[in-house]
Amino acid sequence: MAEQDKGVEELLDRLLEGRKPEELVGAGGLLEDLTKRLYERALEGELTAHLGYEKHAPEGRNRGNSRNGKSTKRLKTETGELALEIPRDREGSFDPVLVPKGQRRLPGFDEKVIALYARGMTTREIQGHLKEIYKVEVSPSLISSVTDAVLDDVKAWQARPLDAVYPIVYLDAIHVKMRTGGHVQTQAVYLALALTLSGDKELLGLWVGEAEGAKFWLGVLTELRNRGVQDVLIASIDGLVGFPEAIETVFPKAQVQLCIVHMVRGSLKYVSWKERRAVAKDLRAIYQAPTEEAAEEALAALEARWDGRFPMISRKWRANWANLSPFFAYPPEIRRVMYTTNAIEAINAQLRKVTKKRGSFPNPEAVRKVLYLAIMKASERWTRPVQDWPTALNHLAIVFPGRLPA
Fold it and tell me: What pLDDT score was predicted for residue 3?
């Protein structure tokens, strides 16, 4: 084996000797030449197997079918365009497996297009990129057909079975522009992100609707149940009216936790820029309090200081207190992942990066295609939001007895 490796190294040394870097890759480079020779040699081997005899072999005489020259076929590759000499047979019955009839792209090209699409590039931008970097001319319709192949993966992913129990599920939505009935309208994309029993993040699905509303969320939650989810311990949500009731309808035992970040943002809308820092400090005293009793004292202090000028802040917190205060019963490591939808907000930020370049989407399928690819790419870098997850899980098992599997 060592001698074989040595032979390969010597062969590479001879191939690379005296060549400049630009002579190795790109159009007309060594890599292109080697790829061309490799494919053409393999195609010759396929034709030999099809005919049943080697080229110029005497047993091929009077066999009926025979070699009949070659035709040139230009194929798009991930490094540029490649012209291959495809061998033919006289009867026209030879259909190569390596490069089937009708194929115009070699393996790797489609993956390159999809990777560019996943980074948020539009069809026109991909077309220009391939032309500028790889000198390959492709039509927008070709790029669309390549990326449309992802839709089957999206459907399978969206319909996959889910776990029976999720300790924490974050529910949120982002908004995109989409052409509907000849007009560009704002559409909501609903997202459900879960923490699994192993402490990992899993996006359960994405749904495209007309506008964010509790009725649509009810349909989303019902689909999650139909896909196998039997119980959710904690549902972290924003302050959408009717949202807690929708969750209770489908998962009646779920503990609803309103996102503190959303509450703070909503409260500061009533405050002038000059006084936001002071009000934010008093709000922080509420949600960082060690106990619920201390939090209520901090809320009373905020009322005494600011109700004369901003009465809507304390009213908002009082009205939602039942769904704001549950996290006070948990240790800090669980609190951090309960009282904020930061986990899903981070995903939303990544998704907005790939949607902001587009003025609007032509249809819901285009939205799903782009966001699915972005999610798959982002998930490769996901880390656990809770460092000591076993300890947190044990605490949840005590708070919710009998609801976590052994």
Answer: 60
Residue 145 CA to residue 132 CA, distance in Å, equals: 21
Q: Hey, what amino acid is at 51? A: L
Whole-angstrom distance, CA of residue 7 vs CA of residue 105? 33
Q: Each residue of 124-134: pLDDT tens digit? A: 888 887 777 66
DSSP 8-state class, residue 361? B
Among 9-23, 105-119, 255-269, 303-317, the range of highest mean pLDDT:
303-317
Residue type, 223: E
Listed in sequence order, the residues at least 6 apart from 200 whose beta carbon sits closer than 8 Å to its beta carbon are: 382, 384
**377 DSSP assignment:** H
Domain range annotation of the chain:
17-107, 164-399
Cβ-count burial 130-141 (b if 16+ within 10 Å, e if not):
beeebebebeee
> Taking 90 as the threshold, does the pLDDT of residue 317 lie above it?
yes
170 sits in which H/E element: strand 165-180
Q: Which residues pair with 162 in a beta bridge?
A: none
Q: Which residue has the higher pLDDT, 5 or 225?
A: 225
- Do 140 and 127 touch, CB atoms closer than 8 A? yes
* Distance separating alpha carbons of residues 213 and 243, to the nearest angstrom: 8
Residue pair 107/39 in contact (Cβ under 8 Å)? The answer is: no
pLDDT tens-digit map of 211-247 = 678 889 999 999 999 999 999 999 998 877 788 999 9
- Rg of the chain over all Cα atoms, to the nearest angstrom: 30
- Residue 203: pLDDT band with limits 50, 70, 90: very high
pLDDT at 269: 93
Rounded CA-CA distance 257/219 in Å is 20
Distance CA 303, CA 301 (A): 5
What gap in Å lies between CA 259 and CA 182, rounded to an integer? 36
Which residues, at least 6 apart from 374, have a Cβ–Cβ distance to it below 8 Å?
Answer: 118, 120, 350, 351, 353, 354
Contacts of 195 (CB under 8 A, 6+ apart): 166, 167, 168, 169, 201, 202, 337, 343, 385, 386
Treating both helix axes as pointing N-terminal to C-terminal, what angle do 364-379 and 150-158 enclose, rounded to 10 degrees?
80
